[in-house]
């Protein structure tokens, strides 16, 4: 029984989700304030702002790709396990040999 439940991912708790969202929001806000208060011209601020947008969107995309690859591996493992289980349940070691 423990083999079947070991591959199941438990959903994140609400507290962890809120903590993650708040931490992301604070980090983003702090960086935006830092860019706004830099003693540089508007072109430099714009460049840093676009860099920030690119980094944040790239981080989300990378996280999604990692999650998708992990989920695909889990599905493949489940399908392989189901095939093996089916072969084992259909096998009759005491029955007549199949031709």
Short description:
This protein has three helices and no strands. The model is unreliable at 1-5 (pLDDT under 50). The chain has helices at 2-6, 14-36, 42-90.
Could you explain the architecture of this structure?
The protein is mostly helical and 99 residues long. It is built from 3 helices and no strands. The protein has helices at 2-6, 14-36, 42-90. Helix 2 runs antiparallel to helix 3. The two termini are 35 Å apart. Residues 1-5 have low confidence and may be disordered.
Blueprint (SSEs and pairs):
Layout: H1 2-6, H2 14-36, H3 42-90
Helix pairs in contact: 2-3
Q: Which geometry do the CA atoms define?
A: elongated
Estimate percent helicity: over 70%
Q: How large is the count of helical segments?
A: 3
The biggest sheet amounts to: none
What's the order of the H and E elements?
A: HHH
């Amino acid at each position: 029984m423990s083999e079947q439940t070991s591959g199941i991912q438990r959903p994140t708790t609400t507290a962890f989700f809120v903590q993650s969202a708040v931490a992301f929001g604070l980090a983003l806000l702090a960086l935006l304030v830092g860019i706004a208060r830099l003693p540089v011209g508007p072109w430099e601020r714009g460049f840093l702002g676009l860099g920030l947008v690119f980094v944040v969107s790239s981080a989300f995309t990378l996280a999604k790709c990692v999650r998708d690859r992990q989920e695909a591996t889990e599905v493949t493992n489940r399908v392989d396990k189901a095939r093996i289980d089916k072969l084992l349940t259909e096998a009759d070691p005491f029955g007549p040999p199949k031709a």
